[in-house]
Write a structure and sequence with these properties.
- With 574 residues, this protein is an alpha/beta fold.
- 36% of the residues lie in helices and 16% in strands.
- It has a 6-stranded parallel β-sheet, sandwiched between helices. Strands 9-8-7-10-11-12 form a 6-stranded parallel β-sheet, sandwiched between helices. Strands 14-13-15-16-18-17 form a 6-stranded parallel β-sheet, with helices on both faces.
- The N and C termini lie far apart (51 Å).
C-alpha cells in the first residue's frame, strides 16, 4: 500500500471526519489519497493559521483530535500560532506537515537550507507541542501516527506534529490495516484524598467552586454538572469554562478574572473555601495580588498537571488527578456527605448580582451597549439552534463572556492562553463543520481582518455561521490600555488604523449582510440574521470607539477592586 493511502485509512479509522489544509507541493500525495479514499472530507482553507484554528475548534467540540495539514516551509510555519493555541488551551490536535525529500535535506551540513522550502518545523514548533516526530523511514509511519493520536488525547490533551518527507509519502508499506487508537488510561484518583475535601466543604459557610477549562479538556462536563447538582455549591468560572453551567443554572454565579463579572469577583473575595477544578489560577484569573487572593480562605486545587498546583498561588491543598477519575471517585462519596445550609450565602450572591448587573457597567455610554447586545443575541428565538458561540480576542470577547446566555447544550469557544486575534472566524468554521449546526461568531473589527479571507471558505462549504462584528473603529483593548497608561496616545490602535464596511465585504463574497448603527436597529437586524438559520450572515454593529470593557481588575489590587471604581497601582505586565 502507498504510504499516503495508509495515512488516509488511518485517519478514517480514528474517526476523523475532516482534515483542514492549504494545499502545497509537499502534501499533494496526502491530499490525493484523502480525495481518492473519499471518506475523510478535505476542507480547503485560505491560510494555514486558519486551518490550525479550525482544527483547534474541532478538538474542543468533539474530543477527537482536530487534524490540519500544511506543506513544508511557510505552510508549516504558518501553523505555529494555531499549534500554540491548542497547546495553551489543552486541545487535542494532530498536525501533519509535508517535508522535502530525504535527499534534499541538509542533515548535518553547516548550511541554512538545501531543499527549496526546507524548514525544520519539528525544532521550530517543539516548545508548543506535546510531541513531534521527524519520519526518516517509511516503516515508522504506522507507529508514529498511533503515537500521535494517543499522545494528543492522553493525560493533559494537546497538539502533536508528524513531519513527513515527500518521498516517504509515496513509499510502499506492508502493514496490517489501521485500527482505532486508544488513549492511555488515566491515573486513578486516591479516594482517601477526597475525604478531607468533603469535610472542608461541609464545614464551609461561603464555599465556591471555580470551574476551569480542564473540565472540558477531560470530557467531564456531565459528571461535573451531576456533582454540582448534588453539592449545590455556587460555581464561578474561568474564561475557558464560561459554558461549564448553562446560564440559568441555580448554582451559576459568573465569570471571574481581569474582566470577570463584578459580582463574581466579589464572591471570590468573600469565599471561605475555593475548590479549583482544572484551572491554572493565572494572573488574569487571580489578579497580581496573590497574597490577597489566598488570604482568608482554604483552597483545594485539582489538576491533572502537578506543576500547575501551588505554582502562583501557594498553600493550596493539591489533588493531582485527571478530572474524569476525580469525579468518578467523588460521586459515590456524596451519598454520605453532610451538606451545609448555604441559603444565606446564596441570597448574598444574588444580592451582589442585583447590585452590580453587567448591563449597568457601561451605563451612560453612547450608542449600543455591548453587554445588552450579547443578551439580545443569545435570547433571540433563532439562537436556540446554535451549537456554539465563538469569540475572537479583544473587548468583544470579554463582553461576550460576561453576558452571553448559554443553553445547556451550547459551547463557548475562545483563545485563552494564546489570546490570538484572528482565532474567531476559522474556529467558527471548525465548530460548524464539527457540529453541523449554526454557529454565532462574535468578533471585533481588528481581529476579524486577520483571517477575513476565510469568508470564502464559509461560502464554498455553505456553513451556517452568523457573524456579528462589533466595530469600534480601533483595536479596542489596547486602546483602553493606552488610555490607562500612555496618556491617551492612541497610535496604531485608533490613529493610523482603519477598517472596511464589513457588510459590503460580506456581500462581495455573496453573504447576506446588514448594519446596526443604533439601538433601534438591533432588533430588526437580528430578525433578519435569523430569517434562515442555515444560511451564513454578517451583522456589522457600530460601537462607540471609547467604550471600555468593564469591570476590569485594577492591576496590583485585590480581585475585589475593579475599574472604573478603583484605579490600578502599577502598569500591567501581562
Amino acid at each position: 500500500m502507498k504510504a499516503s493511502d495508509y495515512i488516509a485509512d488511518f485517519l478514517h479509522a480514528q474517526g476523523v471526519p475532516q482534515v483542514f489544509e492549504v494545499v502545497g507541493g509537499m502534501i499533494t500525495h496526502l491530499v490525493d489519497s484523502l480525495y481518492a479514499q473519499g471518506r475523510t472530507r478535505l476542507v480547503s482553507m485560505h491560510h494555514e493559521q486558519a486551518a490550525a484554528f479550525a482544527a483547534d475548534a474541532v478538538g474542543r467540540m468533539t474530543g477527537i483530535p482536530g487534524v490540519a495539514m500544511a506543506t513544508s516551509g511557510p505552510g508549516a510555519t504558518n501553523l505555529l500560532t494555531g499549534i500554540g493555541s491548542c497547546f495553551f488551551d489543552s486541545t487535542p490536535a494532530v498536525f501533519i506537515t509535508g517535508q522535502v525529500n530525504l535527499h534534499e535535506q541538509k542533515g548535518s551540513r553547516p548550511i541554512r537550507q538545501l531543499g527549496f522550502q526546507e524548514t525544520d518545523i519539528v525544532a521550530a514548533a517543539g516548545p508548543l507541542l506535546k510531541a513531534a516526530w521527524r519520519i526518516t523511514q517509511a516503516d515508522e509511519i504506522p507507529e508514529r501516527l498511533a503515537d500521535a493520536f494517543r499522545t494528543a488525547v492522553s493525560g493533559r490533551p494537546g497538539p502533536v506534529l508528524v513531519d513527513l518527507p515527500f518521498d516517504l509519502q509515496r513509499a510502499a508499506l506492508t502493514t496490517p490495516p489501521p485500527v482505532r487508537v486508544q488513549s492511555a488510561p488515566s491515573v486513578p484518583c486516591d479516594v482517601d484524598a477526597l475525604r478531607p475535601l468533603l469535610r472542608a466543604l461541609a464545614a464551609a459557610r461561603r464555599p465556591l467552586i471555580l470551574a476551569g477549562g480542564g473540565i472540558r479538556a477531560a470530557r467531564s462536563i456531565d459528571a461535573f454538572r451531576r456533582v454540582v447538582d448534588r453539592l449545590e455549591v455556587p460555581v464561578v468560572s474561568s474564561l475557558l469554562a464560561v459554558d461549564a453551567l448553562p446560564y440559568g443554572h441555580t448554582c451559576r454565579v459568573g465569570m471571574i478574572g481581569s474582566y470577570g463579572n463584578r459580582w463574581a469577583n466579589l464572591a471570590v473575595s468573600e469565599a471561605d473555601l475555593l475548590l479549583v477544578l482544572g484551572s491554572r489560577l493565572d494572573i488574569r484569573q487571580t489578579g497580581a495580588d496573590v497574597a490577597a487572593f489566598r488570604a482568608g480562605r482554604t483552597i483545594y486545587h485539582v489538576d491533572c498537571d502537578a506543576a500547575e498546583i501551588n505554582n502562583r498561588i501557594q498553600g493550596c491543598h493539591g489533588v493531582v488527578a485527571d478530572l474524569r477519575a476525580f469525579f468518578s471517585g467523588l460521586e459515590p462519596l456524596l451519598d454520605v456527605v453532610a451538606r451545609p445550609d448555604l441559603a444565606a450565602w446564596r441570597a448574598h450572591l444574588h444580592e451582589l448580582r442585583q447590585r452590580w448587573p453587567d448591563v449597568a457597567e457601561l451605563d451612560g455610554a453612547p450608542g449600543i451597549n455591548p453587554n445588552v447586545l450579547m443578551h439580545q443575541i443569545s435570547a433571540h428565538d433563532g439562537a436556540a439552534t446554535v451549537a456554539a458561540y465563538v469569540a475572537d480576542v479583544g473587548q468583544h470577547q470579554m463582553w461576550a463572556a460576561q453576558s452571553i446566555e448559554l443553553r445547556d447544550h451550547q459551547r463557548f469557544l475562545t483563545s485563552g492562553g494564546m489570546g490570538a486575534m484572528g482565532f474567531g472566524l476559522p474556529a467558527a468554521i471548525g465548530a460548524a463543520v464539527a457540529s453541523k449546526h449554526p454557529i454565532v461568531l462574535i468578533a471585533g473589527d481588528g481581529g476579524f481582518q486577520l483571517n477575513i479571507q476565510e469568508l470564502q471558505t464559509i461560502v464554498r462549504n455553505g456553513l451556517p455561521i452568523k457573524m456579528v462584528v462589533l466595530d469600534n473603529k480601533c483595536h479596542g483593548m489596547v486602546r483602553q490600555f493606552q488610555q490607562s497608561y500612555f496618556g491617551e496616545r492612541y497610535q496604531s490602535t485608533y490613529w493610523g488604523y482603519s477598517a472596511p464596511d464589513f457588510a459590503d465585504v460580506a456581500r462581495a463574497y455573496r453573504i447576506e449582510a446588514t448594519f446596526a448603527r443604533d439601538v433601534a436597529a438591533v432588533a430588526p437586524a437580528l430578525e433578519r440574521m435569523w430569517r434562515d438559520p442555515q444560511e451564513p450572515f454578517m451583522l456589522h454593529v457600530e460601537i462607540d470607539t471609547f467604550v471600555n470593557a468593564y469591570p476590569k481588575l485594577a492591576f496590583g489590587r485585590p480581585i475585589s477592586e475593579m475599574e472604573p471604581l478603583a484605579k490600578p497601582i502599577a502598569i500591567e505586565s501581562t
